[in-house]
Amino acid sequence: MNDAPTIRRRGLVAAGLSLPFIRSAAAQQASGEPYVMGTLFPMSGPNAEYGEAFTRGAQLALSHIAADNMLRRPIRLQAEDSQALPQPSVVGMNKLVNVDRAVWVLVSWTASSKAVAPIGDRAKVIMVNGGAVGPDLSGLSPYFWNVIALAHLEVPVLVDYLTRHRNVKRMALVYVDDPLGDAILGQLRTELPKAGGQLVGSFSVPRAAQQFGPVAARVRQTRPDAVYIASFGAQQSQIIKGLRDNGVTQILCSYSAFSIDSVRQLPEAVGALYTTQKLDFESGDPITRRFAADFRARYNQTPVAYHANYYNAAYLFGLLARQLEQANEEVNGESLRQAMLRTRTFDLVGGRGTFDDQGNLMTQMQVNEIKGAGRTEIVQG
Amino acid sequence: MLFLQLLINGLQTGAIYALTAAGFALIFGATRIFHFAHGTAFTLAGYAFLFAWRADWPGWAGVLVAVAAATLFGMAMERFVYRPIQRHEGSFFTVFVAAFGVGIVVQNLIGLFAGRGLATVDTPLSFGTEVLPEIFVAPILWIAIGTAAVLFAALTVFLTRSHAGVALRALAQNPDLIRTYGLSANGLSVLAFAIGSALAAPAAIITAMTSGLNEAIGHQVMLISIAATIVGGIGSLRGAALAGLMLGVAESLALQFVDTQWAEAVSFLVLFAFILFRPSGIFGVAAAR
After folding, report:
1. Are both A139 and A169 inside the same structural domain?
2. What does the pLDDT read at residue A19?
3. Helices B237-253 & B2-31 angle (0-180, nearest 10)
4. Residue in chain B nearest A206 by alpha carbon
5. How far does B229 lie from chain A, in Å, by closest CA?
6. Whole-prediction pTM value?
7. Could you tell me the residue range of the domain that residue A237 belongs to?
8. Looking at the structure, do residues A89 and A228 belong to the same domain, yes or no?
9. ipTM of the complex
10. Which has the closest alpha carbon to A306: A57, A49, A80?
11. Higher-confidence residue: B117 or B45?
12. Number of folded domains in chain A?
């Protein structure tokens, strides 16, 4: 009982000290404070190359939003390092939601996205994924949207192409032991028989595995026509090199993860095939052309699908927030979601895209072939 | 045939593990410092060779640069990180955190300057050709095994025949006695770090040619080095080398019997078995209670 007054006093002091920091969203809006857009990308570790690529796409979108004076308030990009792991992602998401008060968070990685989705869902913060392809990311939350084609859209396109144009009947799979790898395994088991093919072997590898000579020996034994690699980051390049150095000469193929520079410039990756959403940077579409030209000028690099995805993910915020500002509505997760549902169709990089009821941006797909020295060629689409 | 192919792959991996583990064991055995940044020396050596290769330097020059990078890093760690901590009687945990912190800083610096993602040395030495039906062997296999054998022979001669080598072994046994004989424990400690770190360089170069490098590769190297040091017997150089080789072979041969998912777990199953049934390791001496 003696402690009660102390607690009350402490509570009063704490409440008094926190008063200056308690401000409504409306008050923040009126003061012109920046909107906070969070990013949860791997910025360190073996997958940091993706984080850098994703961030570049988002940064370019923000510079275009600012250059076009789309919004009354500026946007602040707040980065948190997910390390491509669920636990650091949850820590980062909690900080973005509770400390930085982000209204829009760009997320990546299937396992990380699934880990943070409940936090964003509770706080009604929009989460936009442009990098992860696990099919169960569809409909994860009303506030979780995908601007990338998920595996259930990528795998059938590649299987169809391989069986019809490359006479592939037997496919082996090397896949990382995580939700993404499991999802691709499930898709191949379903799609290959439909196309008259067969999954002749599936080899799961831990996320940290680095030596693939022994795996190559097992893959060779299955006598495949093609080998699907479902991994990411430094590991997928190691798998490609490990297979090629150890006698696997068959077609190597994958999903959009192959579009990063370290894969496209790997000599052993020449001839490898991968799917992405349809992207023609030389098209007549002005948004795509502007994106490609400015990206090359700013980063001295040819853009790839991931750059475009996260550009779209960030630019979409500009489009929706502008609608809300023009209608004098508060910009928050719920109002942004309502604005998306009202509009559905947006002009973005790659052309016009429409969100379905699950929050997935529906686009056409293409199959790309790596030609060496960073060059790729569209072979279907 | 699969067994033979896996054995060949295992020997190549095992030679790399043996070199890195021996370096770590030499440092730990002589100085009792848990040099967690040994993986960082490995990473630096690999990237030093990579830069030299990309600059079209001759191969021998690249090797020298890699060895110099690892050696200087090891010596700098001893002089500027571990010695000040030990002067203030810092705990094992302090040493570990300091080494871990340095590792993180170097990892990020490498990412900053060398770019993120996989980096490889593109050479035909790593490309396997079919020497028997279903058996692929790359020239790098012979380089890995030969390098490991020559370096261990040289190290054994050094530790048994030279004054400095004998003094290093004495440092591991009784540092106070070293001082009594008028030898510099600090100087010997630096020597242990220099040689131990230099041993990581050939392994890093071979790794750059085979599986490639990324800035975070040091952590994996450390896990194997620690496991090999425990399995080999703490303080035993030949034990760590043999255990490294054994872990590499076991990891590869396991694929004959289990799913690929379990290959790396086999290393730690071996470690677990040793901890349970022979805690002193292969060549370790059981401590009396």
Report:
1. no
2. 46
3. 150
4. B261
5. 20
6. 0.83
7. 152-279+366-380
8. no
9. 0.85
10. A57
11. B45
12. 2
